[in-house]
Write a structure and sequence with these properties.
It is found in: Membrane. The protein has two domains: about 60 residues, no CATH class; about 240 residues, Sandwich (Jelly Rolls), CATH 2.60.120. The longest helix is centred in the last third of the chain and has 41 residues. The protein is about 20% helix and about 35% strand. Helix 1 runs antiparallel to helix 3. Strand 3 and strand 4 form a beta hairpin. It is α+β, with helices and mostly antiparallel strands. The strands form two sheets. Strands 1, 3, 4, 6, 12, 13, 14 and 16 form an eight-stranded antiparallel β-sheet that branches. The chain has a seven-stranded antiparallel β-sheet with strand order 2-5-15-7-9-10-11, with no helix packed on it.
């Protein structure tokens, strides 16, 4: 009985140790820690007691509803709205998660909205409400198809601006696209629409979307040769409507500074070297099996030795 109790306790402790180790790893196989960036995070009610935001400026036709959203443009023609951080984002590695909503009454709609990380800020222009020939990164959530055969809209694309290259609206930026994906169902989504942009300098740029099911993140694009983003870049959101229109709402912005517990490994290399779950599980059970067999062997030897001593003791009496 003593041996069985000891064996059960050993197995339970070993399983608990394995679960603890798994809980500390993320999907890439390395531990990623984060610190919230208050300067670039925006949540309800958005405004302070002075009816201003300490960290963001609102511009153009943007409307703030403190219990619901920041509406960059309403479902009306010829509107332009913006939301820009007052201080630049200087973190080397970061993650920005945004909840948004695109909706309207019409069956014809446009044009979409954009997220920016650029050297300049709060300048109105023709590219989703911001200036052309920008320097930095633009993520465009384009809902209206101009001339791009074979592409399903809405379409989400990234463009890296060098300060000289112009965005071609007539072809929906086909020649300027760095990476992108179709996102059918993003407009009028039944669940909260979100995107999550993750950046590790010189290592990784990844964009994930949520619009089909809650907590179901779809990889839009991922590259382990990311573009160079300006060291001093302002975070912004802009939108515009033309003859066609839609409501473009920003519900919340969550920004984090990221760092790895093992700086020598990169997200890409960690993901490539990480064994598959099936291999890890097989290796784990094989190791556990060897431990159990060893314990049984030791226990069997102990029981045999005890029986031998008992028999010898009985013989010596006679």
């Amino acid at each position: 009985m003593w041996f069985g109790t000891w064996l059960s306790a050993l197995c339970l402790a070993t399983l608990t140790l394995g679960a603890t180790k798994q809980d500390k790893q993320d999907d890439s196989g390395s531990t990623i820690k984060s610190i919230a960036l208050r300067t670039h995070t925006l949540q309800q009610p958005y405004l302070d007691s002075d009816m201003q935001s300490r960290w963001y400026d609102f511009g153009g036709d943007a409307v703030v509803r403190t219990d619901a959203y920041i509406r960059l443009t309403s479902d009306r023609p010829s509107q332009t709205g913006s939301l820009w951080s007052k201080v630049p984002l200087t973190a080397t590695n970061w993650e920005i998660e945004v909840e948004f909503k695109i909706h309207g009454k019409g069956s014809l709609f446009g044009d979409g909205f954009a997220m920016w990380l650029t050297k300049t800020r709060a300048q109105e222009g023709p590219v989703f409400g911001s200036i052309d020939n920008f320097e930095g990164l633009g993520i465009f959530f384009d809902t209206y198809k101009n001339n791009r055969p074979g592409t399903v809209f809405p379409y989400v694309m990234a463009m890296v601006g060098d300060g000289q290259t112009s965005y071609d609206k007539n072809t929906d930026g086909k020649q300027q696209e760095f990476a992108g994906c179709s996102a059918r169902g993003m407009r009028h989504s039944a669940v909260p629409s979100k995107f999550r942009l993750t950046y590790f300098q010189d290592k990784e740029l990844r964009l994930e979307l949520q619009y089909k099911k809650e907590d179901d993140w779809i990889l839009c694009f991922e590259t382990f040769s990311p573009p160079s983003i300006p060291n001093v870049a302002y975070l912004g959101f802009t939108s515009e409507t033309g003859e066609l229109s839609d409501n473009h709402d920003i519900v919340s912005i969550s920004a984090k500074n990221l760092y790895q517990s093992n700086p020598s490994s990169t997200p890409g290399s960690s993901r490539k070297k990480r064994p598959s779950p099936r291999k890890k599980r097989g290796s784990w059970f094989w190791t556990l099996g060897k431990i159990v067999l060893a314990v049984i062997g030791v226990g069997g030897a102990y029981v045999g030795y005890t029986a031998w001593r008992t028999n010898n003791a009985r013989r010596s009496r006679f």
